[in-house]
Write a structure and sequence with these properties.
Length: 904
Amino acid sequence: MTGHCASRNPARLRTNHLAEAFGITNTAPRFSWTPPHGTVRQTAYQLSTSNGWDTGRVDSDVHGFVPYGGPALGSRDRFEWKVRTWNVGPDGTEALSGWSEPMAVELGLLHPGDWSARWIGPDEPVIPAPAQRPGYALHRDFVLEAVPDAARAYATAHGIYELFINGQRVGDQQLTPGSTSYRSTLQVQTFDIAPLLRPGSNTVRAVLTDGWFRGSFGFTRDADMYGTQTAFLAQLELGSGGGWTVIGTDGSWLVSATEILAADLMAGQRVDLRAAAVQGEAARHAVLREGSFSTLTGPVAPPTRIVEELAPVSISRLGSGHQIVDLGQNINGWARLNRLSAAGTEVTLVYGEALDADGEVTRDHLRPIDFKNPGQFLDAGQVDSVVSAGVPGEVFEPRHTIHGFQFVSVRGLADTLQPEDIVGCLVQTDLERLGTFSCSDGRLNKLHEIVDWSFRGNACEVPTDCPQREKAGWTGDWQLFVPTATYLYDVAGFSRKWLNDVRADQWDNGVIANISPSPGPDVTSAEFMAFTNGSAGWGDAIVMVPWEIYLATGDTGILDENWDAMNRWLGFIRSSAEGNRHPARAALRPTPEEHEQYLWDTGFHFGEWMEPGGPAPDLFASRSMDNGIVATAFYRHSSAIMAGIAAVLGRDAEARELRELSENVRWAWQHEYLLPDGTVSDQTVRGGTQANCVRALAFDLVPDAARDAVTDQLASLVRDAGIHLGTGFLATPYLLPALADNGQLDLAYELLMQDSAPSWLVMVDRGATTIWEDWNGIGPDGSVKGSLNHYSKGAVVSFLHRYTAGLRQAPGSAGWERVIIEPRPGAGLTSASTLHCGPQGLIEVDWTIDDGVLALTATIPSGTTADIRLPGEPATAVGPGTHTFAAASARSADTSPDLLRSTP
């Protein structure tokens, strides 16, 4: 990370946010780079491509999202680009940098007509039940006189596929073609296969399983969401001497059984290694399948890979003979087992996040409710098994499933496992790390670590809620965590890919589906739980996520491509508010008051969701509940953000209209939910709740004159709870900032350091390695509840970045061009440090307190200005370079409203 950001030449080259632009299908790519380290600012650039385009010197400080201007690009085109820049140095003189390292860009197949291959699949006269369906091998042989000069394979599937050439696995990507809303988008992987080919006979083989396409999925374990038949599509293009040979999937390909007896993302994978052709089945011809070519697309996000391998921290054998493997860390992925039993012996791997009282892996807390059979639960899944062939060197690696786990119960293996016999494979989208944090308190460092791991465990293809029970791209979870994620990792392409699905899944009436990817609006609007879609705080992700990505990167393109979907969502809210009244309100006031046209008080809403001590979640009761105090707050917040987006996009008239709408919603919220004394009430819980007070401050719902009253109300609620948080899902990320920004910094730190439930440090003290779904995920008696890997509550670590370490982006800035550095120590901390590698380069902040003096060192990258704010000292503006400061460590009690989570 620091190497990229400290180069003396332009570095960290990206094409469309990608570090690997191989097989893309965008013919108008955009180029970005980080300015040379040690310079003050860029004054000009020259961008040159190997296909003949050269900008010459362009006088501009722009170094992000420069549009390609070379020859028109077509299928299979390949070029390299590089850049050099003119920069002002610390001495004030302009100097020319060296050329950057080149970045390769290669386009994939852009048009349906580029494909001569056909969709094929196995003939399945009888399709087994979900989670019982085998894997199939689709293959053909071909002969080459010589190894080609160039060779590409373009491949995708309805299901999950692995591609092999001459027995060698092609590439290191996992779970291909990845998870998207397949009815609108299906990714194609492009591979360089020349090194795997040989003169003479060659074999291409794909292994195909259900995956997201037709496997069981999510909380409800629905199957066949996109279709009932798997299929494969591949086109090999081999070039030598100017001529090309094309080998595409068609009816001549053969289908064979594989060692995979069953593979399912939720249930697990069963394998029998005893025969290359399982049960002696003969190869048969593939059948042609129906499949779209117009939905095919190249990569938008980094690929999914095994990014880390974890050795066990302990292995123990129970009285049952089962061996319990503890990785010491909850992850997303699978275990690779290098020691199997004698031929014909079955070994079973049961994956889980926790152990029961007997030391066995338990999955009971991961069993989802069976909504169609009240009182019943579905199976938790996460079980793999392998039957050994007795061949030396056998390895079992179930790459056609995925699990969330820290522990593995290995059953049926007589031999005693050694640490080198089994490894945990962490499988995630291969995201670049951008940020770190550390401080003088070990428990806060551990909290930051488990939040980081929790996100990594949920960053597999899409931002999931949890990696075991659901694996679903819940909109609410990502909108809450994305400000934190953008600081820690480059999630721009990752988010853009997901937003493509969110738009595709949007209903005709503007409703944003709760989960994306999904089978599309025709399906989600008709399913059993369709009424839960369109909730405040979940649907608002279509506004809040693009805004946060823009703030982190400065990329206006992500705002523009989501603008129509944002407007459709806001239109749904507006029509709901203007056209409906909650029955209770109508009974109380038969004639609606003027402000009620801006109250969003009808329809299903999850509400604050899982407030400590609050009522148990009841989806069916929520259909008729008045959640107007929550929904109207988000109506205000999203319309305010959209006003800011419109201004950024130059839509001035729309910006004015949206600002007016937002102010009207704010007025309506005040009229309905603000009492004469300035405090908040939802009319049902006298005195309000922590969550509603937090939103009142964070979303600027209350007039300035009432901020003190609401702050005092919130502080009293916190103290009445014994210095415990009372916020649920939606308000928790805003809680500490709302206190700190309104004169209650000490109380914010007291909450942060609270070590009895509910609190973050309870998780640390009870051995969590990822963030829990429930504040009491592991009880004091060791009992387990809910998912133990739900990252949304981990958004609290933004407080550590922005308040404790003191680094935040200035209001009105995007792409980290202007920052504020203002350490706000508390809780006896004596040091903190953070770094973030943004679009401008590496920003570092490090401070210590010794003998009452706060010493600060700040490193500012090229093209960036920083406002340094230290207690008792006037604000100081500095530019690029490393700067040191000292001040008395006593804090100022002044409020800093601009510290709240990113708003326009």
